[in-house]
Amino acid sequence: MSRPALVEKPERAPLDRELLVRMHDLMVEARVLEERLIQMYKAGHGFFWIGGPGEEAFNVSLGLLMKKGQGPAFDYLHAHYRQSATLLALGEEPIGALRQMKNTATDPYSGGRNFAGHFSKRSWNIAPASSPIEVQYAVAPGTALVQKRHGGDGITIVTGGDAGTAEGDFASCLVWSSRPANPLPILIIVTNNKWGISTASDGQHGEKHVADRGKAFGMRTKTIDGNDPETAYLELKEAIAYVRKERKPFLLEANVSRLYGHSSASGANFVTDEVDCLKVMEERLEQRGIMTRAQMDAVRTRWTEAIAEMARQAREEPLPAPETIWNHIYSERK
Amino acid sequence: MSRPALVEKPERAPLDRELLVRMHDLMVEARVLEERLIQMYKAGHGFFWIGGPGEEAFNVSLGLLMKKGQGPAFDYLHAHYRQSATLLALGEEPIGALRQMKNTATDPYSGGRNFAGHFSKRSWNIAPASSPIEVQYAVAPGTALVQKRHGGDGITIVTGGDAGTAEGDFASCLVWSSRPANPLPILIIVTNNKWGISTASDGQHGEKHVADRGKAFGMRTKTIDGNDPETAYLELKEAIAYVRKERKPFLLEANVSRLYGHSSASGANFVTDEVDCLKVMEERLEQRGIMTRAQMDAVRTRWTEAIAEMARQAREEPLPAPETIWNHIYSERK
Amino acid sequence: MANMAQAIRMALHYAEENLGVTDIFGEDVGPPLGGVFTVTQGLKTTWNSPLDERGIIGVAMGIAMAGGRPVAEIQFCDYVYNTIDLLKLAGNTCWSTHGDWNLPMVVKTPVGSGIRGSIYHSHSFDATMTHIPGWKVVIPSNPLDAYGLMISACREQDPVMYLEPKALLRIKGEERIPGEPDDDRLLSKMIDAPLGDRSKWKAQWPELQAYEVPIGKGKIVRPGSQVTVVSYGRTLPLCAKAAETLAAEGIDAEVIDLRSLWPYDWEMIRASVEKTGKVLYVNEDTEVTNFGEHLIRRTVDELFYHLNAAPKLLAGKFLPGIGLADTLEMASVPQLGDILDAIRKLAAEQP
Amino acid sequence: MANMAQAIRMALHYAEENLGVTDIFGEDVGPPLGGVFTVTQGLKTTWNSPLDERGIIGVAMGIAMAGGRPVAEIQFCDYVYNTIDLLKLAGNTCWSTHGDWNLPMVVKTPVGSGIRGSIYHSHSFDATMTHIPGWKVVIPSNPLDAYGLMISACREQDPVMYLEPKALLRIKGEERIPGEPDDDRLLSKMIDAPLGDRSKWKAQWPELQAYEVPIGKGKIVRPGSQVTVVSYGRTLPLCAKAAETLAAEGIDAEVIDLRSLWPYDWEMIRASVEKTGKVLYVNEDTEVTNFGEHLIRRTVDELFYHLNAAPKLLAGKFLPGIGLADTLEMASVPQLGDILDAIRKLAAEQP
Ligand SMILES: Cc1ncc(C[n+]2csc(CCOP(=O)(O)OP(=O)(O)O)c2C)c(N)n1
Ligand SMILES: Cc1ncc(C[n+]2csc(CCOP(=O)(O)OP(=O)(O)O)c2C)c(N)n1
Ligand SMILES: [Mg+2]
Ligand SMILES: [Mg+2]
């Protein structure tokens, strides 16, 4: 069973210039960052790479649409390990990711303890990304539950891959989010790149669309083309608006690409047979006369230089001291 | 959200006399057995009771329709703890259940180790019922997988309650049974009595019907009135025939009653506000002139006496010796 | 006096009122039942969860992340074993994020044998739980400690596993909970849900007072000079009783109730073993890779030259389950007779 | 010589051909990848499962029930912790049914540190697994043992947990697998999947012969008289190396490779400790409620009066994870230097 490549065509009014230029800038920033992380890995400046090149259209949109802040009045993000573009769109500096790659003591997400792409930023409600697949889906209803009680329009957003939906935790998320006793303001996202490491989705998914699994629970669901920046933005906007207002769950599946394979364990080489959302974006910008090729190249050069400089800086920073293993087993908060 | 009481009305040709009389006999046998187990518990001849009074119409039908035997050519049953009527319909002697209640050394299912209702009979492909809710749904696709490969028409049947479908294992069962790479001959049953111990299903299930969860997986699904003996029999027959022939999964939800509450922990007293399938059966038999009240009373008397006698016997049998705890940690099979 | 179930219930009420507890939840935790052991009857923040232990632990973590203070219940610890990854995750979240996130959450779950619970209502959880870093782990053996430990647990900024020895839940205490009325029947009338229809019932809470049993502090239940006996949970009262019995035989045993398994009161154990030179650890978890073995390791590691005899462990047999029949349960986990024998033997040992 | 990954692969091929293995499955176990560590490349009964560890263990149980013989893989033991209830169930099925059902199934999973795996690719699983009754548990430290233990595992009638020390999977052996060709490059050509398109590739299997390492039997890797060192998995070669180094310093250590953790070769340990009077247990699981603590308990229980020094455990620090940075990993789990120090100290101890 194979799936239609494009499930949904964008038929809405195009996004305005300013937003598109902003999105493009962030997408380039994210792509350049990931490519730099891959380079670092290949040069021996890190042990493992995993990240989100190919998901920038969707992930940037998500970051731009989130309500950033700390506590239940703001949005929570329970993300997996391909979400760098969302962090950047929220305003995060790329150097943090580089530091985590190099596992320096300055790594703001884990102090040199965790793999690349494993973000955590409590001050913006970014829940820690953890390696075990799908556990975030079991946790996310908890933040949504507090938000529901708190009032306001803060929502919980949880993301993960297609293969991982086979874990029971994905079902738990659907069950807990749609309880008639307390439906939750949660946007449940699946980024479907049609792979789990080396395993093609075709043989593993009896569902036509992963999103269909929400239907039995009376949830709104949709499967979208996450490679199209405008579709991604507009569909996310609609889904988020629904959850914010109705305080009810929405299951959104975005078809996306995996442009450098699964991770460094599979070589982290560019694949040529998948749609590249950045190319889609740039063609559109050019077609519509919003940016020229030269302008776009300049954006890439700017980010390449800036991030290369940050990488140089990160490379010189020290590793955490051995005795720091004993720090933070328990909270120092009182 | 409350559910329609009868989802499906029987509209097929009625079952023939002989089968109905046989079903009635088995239903009475099962009911009398369960009531005896409850009595034993109340009299201190057992520590805990749990069982299936209220599910006889459905469970007897299941037992009558199963292909009994050992190995993948025959049907496997992965049941939960309310399945005594199915065992009896397969031809099991009631004394085994009484022995398990009294935890005697002669208990054929666990040697005095496990709670009432925890059957196991390898020679008939009856997988051990275990206390943890829903794990049987994770195991069942394994026997179905071997059956698929083996060929023939043996199928796997798995049963469990409504509340338990919140566990991820229920979803795992749907996922593993419907893989395009290898769809499995498995009948996935949920007996919906609208309760999990003290928790009403209304507040917990966003699904209109639990069976709807199979739809996303392209599975045949149905919700039936499991309290109507004829509906139960005919729907099961159809579902089983489909799985046997097509070698594909079917998700069947049967609405049933819980006539003595959850277990002895909740008192094990008869409830009067739920449909009693045995009454439904007896009314029908009388209406259609198949059996008279006196004949039916005689059936009950016969079983009551027979089972009381068995209970007396079981009560006199010794407990397992302390040192037997060391037996069967590993198999003695070579 | 209150029994342990009532004591925990009162502590949870205190915690709802004074310590910011926002959600007490789990399977059958809310009305009408209020918990299969009645522990959560009448509380104002209780609710019934789906039958999904992974969801229960996950949602507790999420609530803690968003500023709530959850007390989540796993109905029997026998059903916690599909959540070990989540417990590990809860325990490593602070460390993995270099202190960015912490999870103030309590998980409570009944443990142990003693109610003829057969294979799946008799498990112990102390061995598995003490192997999971980042948690604090407590287990009371009497109502007052149960009250004080729950209050301490609800004040923590990190995950606390609160183990309830189910055989002791119905046993009344010998000390009064601060604030509980003098009359037990009055207490029951006030806070135990009535039989029958409960839809209109509300608990009448006594004026409870704060009382903390600090996490990490054991208690000398009986001072003695010849043998140290360290235990917790169901076996603790048996050890105390054994020591009493043996006093008549001239064996003077010191009995320590550990109360907290992590962190635990090593100073108390050390002082006692330095005095007695002999120590028996008693618990009812299965005996291979058992927490008592950790305590023995630490004992030989630090006190080897103080020992007059090999330190001993009396624990559950290494069996796949506890059988339902009385004969089987008695043979599988330590009973009074086993403890008496073990203490006698140790006391008699000549170096 | 074959490396450990190749050795296990060859054993699985042998088991498919001769021992009735029907299903080798798990995440990415089948083509095209053949396992994240290449262990299952080219085998005929492999298939890729959904990303669902609970399903993997459950389905393995079901296959075993229906007369199949599964070898199921959990991609990293770090991801096995949501299945502990199912592992317990598999381990208690025979006992709970009074011998009616047994489950001939093997679960294999990579364990341990040494590949800079950070928090979730560095876990050990020996402590948790040895606490689960009804299983046999093995862990090889070299390719030949890996081959022989897998063959033994596939002959068992009960569940076997086969732990693969991931740091050793790429290391070549010093002994030849019976049947493996003399030329390593030839072996690689025959059984390692090529880079690029593999859709037409088939393994060319050498004529492998049966070779069993009996479950429950350890191996004296280096005989010695002064100190006994008992280890397994990643730390075993380090212990052997340490003993070699220390021989030059006049410290004569006996090194035992336990190989089977349950049942384990107590006779071998006992004989050694009776001889040396000193024992160091080394493993890399976290050190609280650690299997090495069980071994220490048994040592003091049965050999107290043979000991010339307190038995010691060198294990992983009790931390929520192993940090990615080299500095952190080195400080968290035993390294060669730590083992050298521990043996030296123990050897020097005067009773
Ligand atoms: C519980 C668990 N099992 C296995 C793994 C190993 N693993 C890491 S990523 C991955 C595939 C994930 O596929 P998918 O969910 O589709 O996400 P994607 O990587 O494609 O974005 C696997 C099996 C893991 N990290 N966690
Ligand atoms: C994993 C697990 N969690 C909790 C329990 C305790 N428990 C026993 S029966 C039950 C309710 C089951 O409800 P349902 O699945 O609807 O089945 P029913 O008893 O109604 O047939 C619960 C929570 C258990 N046995 N296993
Ligand atoms: Mg994917
Ligand atoms: Mg039910």
Task: Describe this entry's structure for a reader.
The complex is a heterotetramer, with two copies of chain A (334 residues) and two copies of chain C (351 residues). Chain A has 334 residues and is an alpha/beta fold. In chain A, 39% of the residues lie in helices and 10% in strands. Chain A has helices at residues 17-42, 56-65, 84-90, 95-101, 135-150, 168-177, 229-246, 277-287, 293-316, and strands at 76-78, 156-161, 186-192, 195-196, 199-200, 220-225, 250-255. In chain A, helix 1 packs across helix 2 and helix 1 (17-42) runs antiparallel to helix 8. Mean pLDDT of chain A is 96; it is low at 1-8. Chain C is 35% helix and 16% strand. In chain C, strand 11 (279-286), helix 9 (291-303) and strand 12 form a beta-alpha-beta unit. Chain C is globular. The model of chain C has no long low-confidence stretch (mean pLDDT 98). The chains are: A alpha/beta (334), C alpha/beta (351). At the C-D interface, helix 3, helix 4 and helix 9 of C face helix 3, helix 4 and helix 9 of D. One thiamine diphosphate sits between chains B (82, 131-133, 160-164, 193, 195-197, 262) and C (27, 51, 53, 75, 79).
Short key terms for the protein model shown above:
heterotetramer; A: 334 residues; alpha/beta; Rossmann fold; five-stranded parallel beta sheet; two-stranded antiparallel ribbon; 9 helices; 7 strands; C: 351 residues; 2 domains; seven-stranded mixed beta sheet; five-stranded mixed beta sheet; 11 helices; 12 strands; globular; binds thiamine diphosphate; binds magnesium ion
